[in-house]
Each structure stands twice: as structure tokens, then as C-alpha cells.
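haha ok so turns out i had the wrong file open the whole time. this is the CORRECT one, sorry everyone. sequence first:
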Amino acid sequence: MGIAVENISKRFGNFQAVDRVNLEIDRGELIALLGPSGSGKSTLLRLISGLEVPDEGRLWLGGEDATKQSVRERNIGFVFQNYALFKHLTIGQNIAFGLEIRSIPAAKVKKKVAELLDLIQLSGLGDRYPAQLSGGQRQRVALARALAIEPKILLLDEPFGALDAKVRKDLRAWLRQLHDRSRVTTVFVTHDRSDAMEVADNIVIMNKGRIEQVGTPAEIYNRPNNAFVMGFIGPVNILPSSSNIFQNYRLATTNPQMFLRPQDIAIETGSSTSTVAAKVNRVTHLGSEIQAELALDDGQVIMAHLTRERFDELQLAPQQQVFIKPKEAKSFPIDYSI
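then structure:
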């Protein structure tokens, strides 16, 4: 089932949580709502679910006006950030809950629970209680409970938020695989760009109740609409357009700032007519990448990222003089509303 949000707004007192948002989500898509705290992403998710009622605008589900439909009428599965599992029920009973209140025959419920336990890779654990599972396992049970009623849409609010880094990464991959098998239209909220980049077909960047950009992870990263999107979707150096690092970079602009990603800085040990001098302040190992903190002659400090192979070639060390140039930079007009 596809989703269409038409000019929807929601205010809480004096706070404009969602401001005239328009968005279309195709059937079977996996979409991330990404933005900082207070950007409106969770409120938009709740408006889609029916847990909140819009002040204005309309919501369409599968081409049908669902603005005034109840939560149950919308046939939506919702997974909360804190899992919301029933502590006094077993895992199997938690998954079966939505089916039983719909008076589904016991034999069908048992079969469905077994299928879902297999799907979430917890077969044989149906008699355990939530407290006996890890955080990642409890999140998978919450997803299975939402899927049990065969929802047309699955909504997830910060599904990875309470997990440690290793479990978080594993669950991202599992959620992507689950979606590829179920093809349920899925929307999830996150403030972590890695969650969105690794899992989603398309990302909706939100800020101050508005949508700044919609696109694939590659489109958002490589062709950001504005300074907010570029800064939020990945690390960036913000420098004056007059900085000497841009003296030989051909980008005609009247904007006062330039945006330069750390991986878009070329570092050499010898000078050329296109490079400027810099000093290595610090080298930090980030795993597959190396981060070099560089001080320019004009006092600006910037961060550059290198592959481990390139770092081994250069043999960078603190206080070493190097020569750098931008491989790609961007410039945006200042938007005072951001």
C-alpha cells in the first residue's frame, strides 16, 4: 500500500511540529525519516499511523482518504522505540496477541507464530519471556508482533535507538533482509544517518517540521539541496570562500562559505601550483579510515579522511608539513530559516 501525505500540519501549543508537509511513498518502499530531535519525524510517523490527528491536510493510504480513519481501520503495524512488549507474556504470546484479539482460530495463530519465530530467527524460544532475551532479540519480537496481523504498512520509531553498536549493525542488515522478503511498505524514524544510509531505499531529511530533501542515500549524500542537508548527512568542513585552499579551485560563487567533505581533500607530501601548505596536527585511526587534523597557513583547521592504503603511502605524522587541495567542494546560499 502506498502513502500520500498532502499538506499536513500539526501543532502542539506554540510548537509547530509538522509544517505543511507533502510526501509520497510508493508501495513496497523502505523509507527513512531522518533528522535531528524536534524535526517532526516522529510526529509525522504518528500522523501516518493515526495516533495523532492533523490540524490540516489529508492522508491517503492506497489511494483512499484515511485522514479520519481510526488506527485499527488503517491496518498499520507500529513498533515503538521501547519495544512495548508485555513482560508477563511469553515471546509466543506477545506475537500472538494481535491475532487473538481479532478472534483468529487457535490453530492458525499457532501456525503464524511458528512462521514468525522462524522469520525472526528465534525458533524454539517462543516459551521464553522478554527479560530472558537480548535487546536485539526483543526488537525482533516487536517486529514479529507488528507483522503478525499482516499490516499493509509497517511503521518503526527509532528501531535501533536502544542497541549497542554491534547489535545495531546486525539488526540493520536483518531489517533490510526482512523487508526484501515481506515487501511491506515500511517507514522508520531515526536521527542516525548510518541507520538511514544502510537500510533505506529513500531518505526523507526533515528539519523544523519541514522536508528539506527526499532521495536515495547516494543522491542525498552526493547532491544535497542545501547546507543543512550536507552537514547533517555526513561530516563536512565549512570554510570561508576566501580561504587560500580554494585559490586554484574553479567554482564561481558569491556565497561566503564553502563546504568540503573530509574525503574530498587530496594530501601530498610535495608541493605543486595547485596545492597549499598545511601542517598535520593529529592523526586518528578510525578503523578502515584515517582522520588527519590539518592546520592551514591562514589559521583554519580542517579534517581530512584517507584510506589506510593512502595513509601508509604518505606516512603522516604530527607536525609534518603536507600540501593539500580540494577534490570537490560545494557552495550554497545562506538560508536563514535553517
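Residues 302 and 311 are 17 Å apart (CA to CA).
again sry for the mixup
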